[in-house]
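go over this record:
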Amino acid sequence: MSFLRDPQIERNVNRLPIAFDSHGVDRFGVDKEWLIRAYSPFAHIYRSYLNVTTFGMEHVPKTGRGLLIGNHSGGIGADAAMTMTSLLMNHDAPRLAHGMAEYFFNTWPFASQLMNRTGHLTGLPEHAEMLLSAGRIVVAFPEGARGTAKLYRDRYKLVRFGTGFVRLALKMQTPVYPFAFIGGEEAFPTMFHIKGLNKLIGAPYVPVAPQLVIWPLPVSCQIHFGAPLYFEGDGSETDEVIQGYVERVKEAIAQLIKNGLDVRPAAFTRKRVDSPYDPTRPELKQ
């Protein structure tokens, strides 16, 4: 098995409900070969290093558009990478998750091309609207860098949510699918930030964890997907109405976090947490 050509990833990329041209490229510039090579290493990390388990994957739409909204944590974004990998590894109905990338990624060498070729666009409203109009899955973290910058002492405490995702969902008549990522706080338990260095490298912050390297600890992680939330409106509602909708999503994610913490046996565990049915792991008897 090639580290850059995982059989499950390659099989599922070829099953995606996306129209690729004869060169393997779709209308947004997403390249099948880039997807296989980018997600294959993540698949190894998913199965063997972070021992990821999913719960409630049946809530994720098999076809059509959807806006997946979750908690952000763990300093280095392992939650985003593993959540998107889980959707592609879904044996029942693989989906390509399009992430809304932070602006600073475009300032890093080669990062912009990698993001575009694998379906992750800069987090502009028009980009998200374009993807949803095409029936795609968009994944967003309303806490933004505020969420990943949290210190370990504030683990699993949701910080302020941006409101743009609700206006987007209303305008595009798209359900919101809440999810919670458990384990990211322990995989990279941020102790403090190195002040000043972030400006030199163009990042919002530079986190420091006990392992002293920008790499997650081998901690078992779980993703809990919740039932879709539907809201009435067209996106032109008052800030008060929008904030009320945001709080409903935030409460749903907080409940999924609580459920997830109750399910796992302990923090920093390496043992994979069993799920009644996890379609990302067809090799396991369930």
Summary: The domain at 7-263 is CATH 3.40.1130 (Glycerol-3-phosphate (1)-acyltransferase). The chain has a mean pLDDT of 92. The chain has ten helices and nine strands. The chain has one domain: 7-263.
